[in-house]
């Protein structure tokens, strides 16, 4: 227990719960704590100068959600804007949530968490955080640690290294760190990538560029429609209260998405043809649909939503073109594809995803022993074997991320109240003796969900076991019933009290 002495560092502050991150997960967690655990003291440590996480980090043209806000928004706070919203509208929504709950007085901005150390003797976490405004290190102790920091590195995005990148005479940028001074007026732009970010950039830059090309190694499935919810509009026209509108529309969106996911699994070819039909309605029967024909089945990766068909309108106008090919190398003038086509560019945008980081790249230890989360088993996708008093938020990969935030926040608050009612000071997910040699499976199976950012980082992530509770379900339609019914006295949850630890250490 090499860090026990630090638990009594002069000037350290103590809280019942310490939340890492003030993005959509952390703000949601704070709301649930205030509502369901009103006696608990808590603090949110956020390394940015303001709240919002992803929606504060990304500033590229047109940045918007790739989920509808009736489900990406919280269940407890109605959304009344467009279903697909730009970052500014989402930040306004989060700011309103913070103001409604008074969460702002609990947030410490520009606090980068460096380490988290659990001490079984004290039954506490020690957290060290660097104040980015002053460089000072602040110390906190907490009974419970709630990780809401997100799952990718904010300081830089994922950019593959291609031959010849140093030869390119123009500018290479990643959307995650969009330069404020980037001038693309009248420029030739190549966007490498085919996901939601590329689909957002292309129509939002097209009018200002000389020409913009989407260069993709493999296509993505897209869906489109008007950026409005007809049911919501109808209910509002009837004078239905906004909270009721939100609840009804949220249920309707989830029901429709459930039907689509089931259809994609059972009748993938029929779903594929329906997706293609919508695109042909914009681009015509003569358009080469190989540019929108992925090799995987629908929903094996997210289906990117294109509001109001803006990407397809930009392609139809001739301002945007699509090239499906592999990159051979960069040249001084642009990108040379394997087929021999030179895509000349003044600016190259690498919309190639992000790098996953596990637990915010924070150094964890339990009683002085470093924690390698890749060697832990996930407990229902929100706790880790052998790690006491810590929960982590990881949302859904098909259904909106925040649907799981709400479910997990309810569960964590129920766990905290259960511990208090039973005099427990810690809870640790623990394998039974019969499970010690259990098979280690990846966090997500490739045949279930296979985007590149996950596949290249699976070796860093916690493992699933071959049986519950050591699994990450990733299915809202199952977890909406199973998580609220989870038995908190089941044998995999090992509870301890401070008094018990004192006796054990005295012995």
Keywords:
21% strand; 507 residues; FAD/NAD(P)-binding domain; 28% helix; 23 strands; globular; nine-stranded mixed beta sheet; alpha/beta
SSE topology:
Elements: E1 13-20, H1 24-36, E2 42-45, H2 54-57, H3 69-72, H4 87-101, E3 107-108, E4 111-119, E5 124-131, E6 137-147, E7 171-173, E8 188-192, H5 196-205, E9 211-216, E10 222-225, H6 230-237, H7 242-266, H8 268-283, E11 304-307, H9 310-317, E12 320-324, E13 327-330, E14 334-337, E15 342-344, E16 347-350, E17 363-366, E18 369-370, E19 378-379, E20 383-384, E21 390-392, H10 401-421, E22 426-429, H11 452-455, H12 476-482, E23 493-496, H13 498-506
Parallel strand pairs: 1-2, 1-6, 2-3, 4-17, 6-21, 7-16, 8-9, 8-16, 9-12, 10-11
Antiparallel strand pairs: 4-5, 5-6, 13-14, 14-15, 17-18, 19-20, 22-23
Helix pairs in contact: 1-4, 1-10, 5-9, 6-7, 7-8
